[in-house]
Specification:
This protein is 26% helix and 44% strand. The chain has 293 residues and is of the alpha+beta class. It folds into 2 domains: 112 residues, Nuclear Transport Factor 2, Chain: A, CATH 3.10.450.100; 125 residues, Immunoglobulins (Immunoglobulin-like). Strands 7, 8, 9, 11 and 12 form a 5-stranded antiparallel beta sheet that branches. It has a 4-stranded antiparallel beta sheet with strand order 1-2-3-4. The chain has a 3-stranded antiparallel beta sheet with strand order 5-6-10, with no helix packed on it.
Length: 293
């Protein structure tokens, strides 16, 4: 009787082949994937979380930069904390802004260093002006009234409070105005009247090894009947800004031109000249008279 076909019913004593395991490439790739996941998580925790938490302070600073660029100085000044406004006058803040194009004409802001601790925050980075000027900046903020307020500001290692420090060396008598003469000259159908005064006792701000004077002049002109002449009365009729080597005791000559019609009412005119110190925040007024014809 024929036997079974070869191989059928045969029993082999050889052990089964070993199960094929994962190769070294698989385990290396798996290990790298785990490291990558851990690295991404670390980056999100260490870098992303501070950036997320600092959104409020950053929005407050960029809001101020937008207001400065739009010429809304009062709104930008109001973003300073109450304690900071006690040492930085509005005039000192305005002068500080004018000195730094990255503030006045800001085009971009970058804050790579951000720290938040309870109700305090600090931002460091760079501001870039529309003209390309780039200046390092540091903002310190604190919570006040439920919002973030700027408690300290430095641009290029200078803060607006330094101008206030300079104001402390101004004479104790404060800003003073002294008449320096009146000039009258007929020009066709008009009379050009130049009111000259000298200002002293104002504050100065340090800048590059020297000191800067910053004054503004307002005038109000009254006719012989004591009526206000509107066209000859306005604020900021003149601005004076210039350097001096003196930290105190400097004198600024100011000349205010007025144009009147040649056939204006004859008699004595009174001009109230007000000089405002844009560094120290003080002001003074002096009446100056002239007669026509």
């Amino acid at each position: 009787m024929p036997g079974p076909p070869p191989g059928v019913g045969d029993v082999s004593d050889a052990p089964p082949p070993p199960r094929k395991g994962k190769g070294p490439v698989f385990w290396i790739a798996a290990g790298c994937g785990s490291c990558l996941v851990a690295l991404v998580g670390f980056i999100l925790l260490v870098i992303g979380l501070p950036f997320l938490m600092s959104r409020g302070p950053v929005d407050a600073v960029r809001g101020q930069l937008h207001e400065i660029k739009a010429g809304q100085t009062d709104a930008a000044y109001a973003r300073l904390s109450g304690s900071y406004r006690e040492v930085v006058s509005r005039e000192a803040f305005s002068g500080f802004v004018l000195r730094h194009p990255a503030l006045k004409d800001n085009a971009d802001s970058t804050f790579l260093s951000r720290s938040i601790h309870n109700d305090r925050a600090e931002l460091e980075g760079f501001l870039t002006a529309t003209g390309g000027e780039r200046e390092p900046v540091r903002f310190r903020l604190e919570k006040e009234g439920g919002g973030w307020k700027i408690a300290s500001l430095e641009v290029a290692n200078e803060g607006p409070e330094k101008a206030v420090t300079a104001a402390a060396v101004a004479p104790s008598a404060g800003l003073q105005i002294e008449p320096a003469g009146v000039q009258k000259r007929t020009e066709g159908d008009t009379v050009r009247v130049t009111i000259k005064v000298t200002a002293s006792g104002f504050a100065v701000r340090p800048e590059g090894g020297r000191f800067i004077i910053s004054l503004a002049v307002d005038v109000e002109t009254m006719d012989p009947a004591a009526g206000r002449i509107e066209e000859l009365s306005r604020t900021d009729v003149q601005e004076f800004e210039g350097p001096t080597s003196l930290p105190q005791g400097a004198v600024a000559p100011l000349a205010v031109p007025l144009i009147l019609a040649k056939d204006s009412v004859t008699g004595a005119y009174t001009v109230k000249v007000t000089v405002r110190d844009r560094v120290g925040g003080g002001q003074a007024t002096r009446d100056v008279t002239f007669e026509l014809p």
